[in-house]
Amino acid sequence: MTYDINKLSLEEKIGQLFMFGIQKDHLDEVTKEMIVKYKLGNVILFARNCISPEQLFQLNQSLQLEATKHLRVPMFISIDQEGGMVTRIFNGATFFPGAMTIAATDDVEYALKNGTYMAEELDALGINMNLAPILDVNNNPKNPVIGVRSFSDDPHKVSQFSEAFFKGQQTKILSTGKHFPGHGDTHLDSHLALPKVDYDLDRLEAIELVPFRNAIQKGIHALMTSHIDFPVFSEQGLPATLSKKCLTEFLRNDLGFEGLIVTDGMEMKAVQDAYGTVEASLMAVQAGANLVCICHSYEYQIQAFERFKQAVLTNELPMSVLDERVSRVLKYKTLINTHIINQTYLGIESVVVNEMHKAYALETVRRAATLVKGDIYQPKGKTLFIGVSPQVTSGADDTEGNYLITKQIKASLPDIGRYLMPVNPSDEVIQDVVKKAKGYDQIVVTTYNGNIYQQQLALIDQLQALSKEVYVVSMRNPYDLHFNPNIKNYVCLYEYTPNSMTILIEYLKGQLTLKGRLPIHG
């Protein structure tokens, strides 16, 4: 079905440019007002909106019914369902693995099938746009926000696995590669500050741009911009999201990208502190963006709508520019599936609550488990397990305290001693752990972003000084050896999720054959 831009009012055109977060897990009066009064054309979902598959189906169904009734154009209903550590749908549906887990299988078939199965579930739930996969090349071990969300530090491996993933997704839904032109070589989180990547074009062409060029050539539907200053692309220190030189001159004209340009969240500090969410939203569209994400603040959402309307009426945002941006949105809306309007949850439940999908996701994590150095743990004598309590490490996460591995250990391996420590243990905690470890023959210690929380690595040194067998298992970023080459026995699982905990228990029982390959340079 096609949508005629000439039949849209000014307000309806503006509404098509916005992708707003909503606060509730149902269609409340505030969201209805956003659609009816402010002509909201698109929604981005977060964990707060996803309680159960049936509830999520009903929410999305009501959103599409409201949009088609009042706007006559369906919504993009989007989500950051990358898998692994950036997951929004936790309960009932499949918990899919993250990018680096998939790459550690060293088999692109896992990327294709995970992308395909994920798309089938999202489509059944009424989600028609996924803000994934990550195209960033994570070649900075200190990166606080990307890490295992990236497939690799090798641009060609990122290209290969991301292509398979989005080709699987695009059988059912729209894919969005991110974060153009690359968030992999930063040491700042753009949720908190404005990073700067000051390389020349030759270096960027050799690494950062390789997966983006490949994705464009292979027909990815959308790209998300990064709030990063790339001096070679951007004018006057602007982040890429706000740079016409970057989005229009380079991405559109030089790279030939014809898909949708989507902004990262406009409340992130990288743009909010310097430009303000509302003004930055307008600047992004002037620069070339088609969809502006304002994820949390109702006040900013309303102010942005009014600011856009004023800008068009005063020709600050010319009608010709507005129409060009909106026309591209409408073009891609011809691709989305609105079957949810006429379906029931019972009619799609078997697609979402799918044992085959869940088994494949678990098998991916199992196949990815990697012995990087030394020996594998073999149960003998008295063993102490030291687990880290996970916490949100960036604005992209929804993982804090959701899963505690020590509970699983107690249930599955009651004879193993347990110690749960914080992600950044103090010297006092380290002393306490070491004191307890003296009474055991073997020690298994898990790390969680030891590249950032390096007290974990200091603990490992002290444990190894006890002259006992110490086995380190990374549950997220696999850079522990980079910062502590003294680690003797090192295994990587790449994520702290229910699936990885199941595989960790298999490892502790001596039942796991480790076949994975490290997707980064060791």
From TrEMBL:
Keyword Hydrolase among record annotations: yes
Catalytic class of the enzyme: hydrolase
Source species, domain of life: Bacteria
Keyword Hydrolase applies: yes
One GO MF term attached to the UniProt entry: beta-N-acetylhexosaminidase activity
InterPro entries: GH, Glyco_hydro_3_C_sf, Glyco_hydro_3_N, Glyco_hydro_3_N_sf, NagZ_Beta-hexosaminidase
Domain Glycoside hydrolase family 3 N-terminal: 10-331
EC numbers for this chain: 3.2.1.52
Pfam families: Glyco_hydro_3
Alphabetical UniProt keywords: Glycosidase, Hydrolase
Family: Belongs to the glycosyl hydrolase 3 family.
Cross-referenced NCBIfam families: PRK05337.1 (NF003740)
Name this polypeptide is given: Beta-N-acetylhexosaminidase
